[in-house]
Every structure is written in C-alpha cells, then in structure tokens.
C-alpha cells in the first residue's frame, strides 16, 4: 500500500484509490486546516498502475518545488507535496505501491492487515479464520461454521479484537485470471474402496498436486452430482446443486457414520486452507465450492473421475494437456 507522511507531525496516511486533500473536513479524506488551502484542494489517485495528483485549488500545489495549478502530475517515490505555505501542509510520498484493501484494528489503529492475497488468522484454540478474495471480487472471511462478506467501513470481530474493513481495490487494474481458471481440469483418482481420494488440478502444462485428503471426498461427491445432472441433460445453470440435507444423508451412508452440516463446513474450510499453500494458482480456486441458500455444488465445469484407472466420467477442457 502507498502511504504519505506529514513532514511536520509525522502523521502517516494510507492512500486509497482516490484521496482528497483540503480544508473541508466533511469532504476531504485528509484535512488540512491552513487558510490558504482550498476546501477541496487536490486529489491524489491511482490510475494505469501509477499515482497522480490533480490540483483543483485557488493557489496551486507544489510538487517537488514545481507549481501545479488545475493540472495533473504523475507522482514518484519520496516526492514532496506542498498544499499551502505552512509546514503542516507539507507531505512526502513514502512509497508508490498499488492500493489494496485492508483491515484496520480499532483497538490499535496503527495496526494494519494488508489484504493482498489470502490470509489465515488464529481465532482461539484449534480455530482459524481464512480471509480470501473471491471470484466476484469480494473479500470474505470464513471459519468452519460461518462465512461473511466484508463490507466497506463496517467493523468485524476477528482474532479477539475489532477490525474495520476498508475496500481499496483498484478495480480497473485487477488482473483477470479467469483464463487460468477456465482452462483448468480437476482430476480425481480413487482407490477401489474409495478410501483414498487423490486430486490434481491441471492448467495447461502445469500440474498442481493436492495429494490425498479426507476432504477431497466431499468434492468427489459434488463432482459426481454435477456429472449426473449433465448426463440427465438437466438445465446447465442448475448442474450440480444439491441440498445440504441430502448431501449430509448421502455422505453419512457412504462414510458409515453420522455427520452434520458443521462437518461439511469443516471439510470445505480445510480444502480452502490447503489451496492457499498450492503455488502458483491454488488461491484462484477458492470458490470452486459454491453455495446458495440451503444448497451447495462443485462450481467448476471441467473434471475427470478415475477409479482404479477406470474412467467413471469426465467433462474436460479440449485444449488442456493431460
């Protein structure tokens, strides 16, 4: 995250994608009380992978001593910006990193958790919180029993303290990894008794080996439901959906033990946690399990199920190198 520092007070401000500096306390993100500073003096903003300043003031702005008035200048690291004559109006750009969303501790406001990938937070004994960026470009937090979608400016109780979420995504510059996800195949390999379920994700010539895990069985059940719907020629957009109640009943029978919705959530939580450690693309598949009210499904379109090398069924990307 880019930050700007007041040269007199030492105050450090995290730059959002758009930041207004001026004398109007209601409209300005950063308030400067000096009388020679205009109400909305200037805006610092992120565009095309660079930071810029646009002056709107009566008296102009100095950028490294250069007078800027009703015009735009590209900013570089360590540049000094002076909005007025007083020393309190002098700021220095500390760095020029791209903006990112973050969590600010309300207990210790100087504590910032920058959200630039996926994160795991402790949440008491034997519990964890996964924080990840979903394919619909929303930051979400998940435990084994709960998933929440962060909203800008709202506070959340995480890891024993209150945090405020600041949405600061440079949407126009967001990298589109959709082609990576769309060209991937999920390959399930089962033992004869289905006690062992291996899983690989193949993206062109890159193979992400997730090994054998207990939670892969849940994905297998969901993939089979999607395959069944396809073979039955059900409506495409409805492929794979199954009620939580039915899935719990089916898995209880398959596993020869009683399970509940919490068990399902725990398996999903463990799967997403596993994805975080799979480089380079694991985090792109955090939404491969999709939910809606009372229902769940395997959301990826392309997969293959092999049981002792026998092909049980497949829907594959034609161009993928298997």
UniProtKB/TrEMBL annotation:
Domain FHA: 19-68
Highest rank taxon of the organism: Bacteria
Transmembrane regions: none
SUPFAM superfamilies: SMAD/FHA domain
Pfam families: FHA
Protein name: FHA domain-containing protein
